[in-house]
Amino acid sequence: MKWSRELRIARRSLRTALKAASAVASANVKAAGWLEWLPPSSGGLQQVADFGSNPGKLGMYVHVPPTLVAGGPLIVLLHGCGQSAATFAADAGWMALSDRLGIPLVLPEQLGENNRGRCFNWFRPLHVKRGFGEAMSIRQMVDAALERLDADPQRVFLAGLSAGGAMTAALLAAYPDVFAAGAVVAGLPVGAASSTTEALARMAEAGPVRSPEAWALEARGAGPIGYTGPWPRVSIWQGAADDVVDPGNARLLGEQWSALHGLGAGTTATLSGGKRRTVWGPGDSPLVELWMLPDLPHSWPTGAVDRVVQFWGINPD
Questions:
Q1: Residue 257: which of 201, 182, 206, 160 has the closest Cα?
Q2: Domains of the chain: which residue ranges?
Q3: Which of 103, 194, 247, 290 could form an SS bridge with 254, CB 3.0 to 4.6 Å?
Q4: Under CATH, to which class is 45-312 assigned?
Q5: How many angstroms separate the CA atoms of 138 and 52, rounded?
Q6: Partner residues linked to 184 by β-bridges
Q7: Which residues are catalytic?
Q8: pLDDT digit string, tens, across residues 87-125
């Protein structure tokens, strides 16, 4: 009987030890997951394989600056057709800004198997709908980055170029409770197209003809059911020399988001070099702005990154 009692005690002790070892192992696995997000020695991007169910089958990359500001903003960037996440982030100036300000970057990347041109599928309803496809994949990336990089969930920002710009507008509408503000360069308004044919037509000629209020309904319809705001602030950039996306799309996008915010007509100022800036909302902190640049082709404007983050409320100095 004595031996039996000691055996039971030994078994309980063994179970306790095994549970403790399992807990330690689990903690080590979690710690290893954190280590994967540390800044790479090359200063480039790191690919993240496990961030969720990834229904849109996108690639995920992160850039963690050498000095990371805990509790700071998080910036998500969407490249244009044919670009890689790394090329877009570096060429537009986002990598340099990240390293300068200590802000981490999340860079979704489109794969050729999803779109032959490696464009985000901004015109396919099942990829821009809240909770589905590419939209859901990007939402999962944001969740993973917020958890592992200790960023501020109230300061998540989104920017994109071309197809990435159109996808940015769609995501701002679908997840207004996730993104504080965004920047759309050479993009299109939410609801402009729902097929490849319509997308090509709208890129060639802005439309269809709708009132600002009707455009706003397109954006509201993409958001959470019963959502009443606030809606993200939006900085819109467009080149008048763009021969890929009709510059008229930028005007429609500005009208869409100004109506979404319940604003009337904007105020336009002509600046040096023929640049025109239209703002909707308070002059010191407009809710929507539209930059029309006379000589800009279909590309990200040089030097625009600092102006965009300033619009978002981040000091670029």
A1: 182
A2: 1-35, 45-312
A3: 290
A4: alpha beta
A5: 10
A6: 160, 236
A7: 162
A8: 999 999 999 999 999 999 999 999 999 999 999 999 999
